[in-house]
């Protein structure tokens, strides 16, 4: 038994907690990668975007994987802004305002968007217009993307960011060394609490993000059926 474990009897328990929290973080990140790729697929197929799908890199750190997903989420934000700019440029002010009027019938909004896409692309499906309207009108998606980008940046910049995502298979001591670095083992409780805080915020934001994406992708599936 390590001396620190003798001095601090709760350390073995905290070590296990730290490893479990790390695995939960990786699982949550993996789900976000999958959800993001679903949205990327919809944007590429129906709105003519060319966003490259992403995957977690097992040889990279948490920070590097955070940066991968931040980059594509920022690109999604850019594409949504581009759609808005196109609508604003091609439509008369009255019609543009209708797109954001919650009292305006959804079918009317889709018809307006389809008209704009027909000008831009030469032709446009109702599915493309529906996706555009959903993206433009979804404060839920906009806010969840912004929130998640901020949290990913925080995680990447924290002590968690330097840990490899494959470290779970490398053994307890290597995980602890990577997570804690020069931190004294008597500060394990502080490390665990910090991890818990980051993870709780990240999981909550991730659930909202994934739900917002599901709202878009489920509409597309219903339309195709």
Low-confidence stretches: 1-9
End-to-end separation in angstroms reads 61 Å
Class computed from helices, strands and strand pairing:
mainly alpha
CA-based shape:
elongated
Mean pLDDT: 80
Taken as a percent bin, the fraction of beta residues is: under 5%
The number of strands is 0
Describe the protein:
This protein has 225 residues and is mainly alpha-helical. It has one domain. The protein has helices at 3-7, 11-47, 62-90, 93-98, 106-121, 126-137, 139-157, 172-180, 188-224. It is elongated and about 65 Å long.
Brief descriptors of the model:
0% strand, disordered N terminus, 225 residues, single chain, mainly alpha, SMCO3, 9 helices
Question: Quick recap of the structure?
Answer:
The chain is mostly helical and 225 residues long. The protein has 9 helices and no strands. The chain starts with a helix and ends with a helix.
Topology summary:
Blueprint: H1 3-7, H2 11-47, H3 62-90, H4 93-98, H5 106-121, H6 126-137, H7 139-157, H8 172-180, H9 188-224
Helix pairs in contact: 2-3, 2-6, 2-9, 3-7, 5-6, 6-9, 7-9
Protein name: SMCO3 protein
InterPro entries: DUF4533, SMCO3
């Amino acid at each position: 038994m390590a001396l620190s474990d003798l001095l601090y009897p709760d350390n073995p328990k905290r070590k296990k907690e730290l490893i479990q929290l790390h695995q939960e973080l990786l699982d949550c990140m993996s789900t976000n990668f999958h959800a993001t790729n679903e949205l990327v697929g919809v944007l590429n197929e129906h709105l003519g975007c060319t966003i490259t799908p992403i995957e977690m890199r097992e040889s990279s750190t948490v920070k590097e994987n955070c940066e991968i997903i931040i980059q594509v989420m920022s690109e999604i934000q850019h594409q949504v802004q581009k759609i808005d700019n196109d609508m604003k440029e091609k439509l008369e002010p009255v019609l543009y305002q209708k797109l954001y009027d919650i009292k305006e019938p959804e079918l009317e909004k889709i018809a307006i968007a389809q008209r704009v896409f027909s000008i831009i692309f030469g032709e446009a499906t109702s599915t493309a217009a529906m996706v555009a309207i959903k993206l433009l009108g979804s404060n839920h998606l906009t806010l969840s993307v912004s929130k998640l980008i901020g949290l990913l940046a925080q995680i990447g910049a924290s002590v968690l960011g330097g840990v490899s995502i494959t470290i779970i298979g490398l053994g307890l001591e290597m995980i602890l060394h990577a997570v804690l670095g020069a931190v004294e083992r008597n500060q394990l409780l502080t490390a665990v609490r910090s991890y818990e805080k980051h993870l709780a915020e990240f999981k909550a934001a991730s659930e909202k993000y994934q739900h917002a994406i599901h709202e878009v992708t489920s509409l597309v599936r219903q339309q195709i059926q």
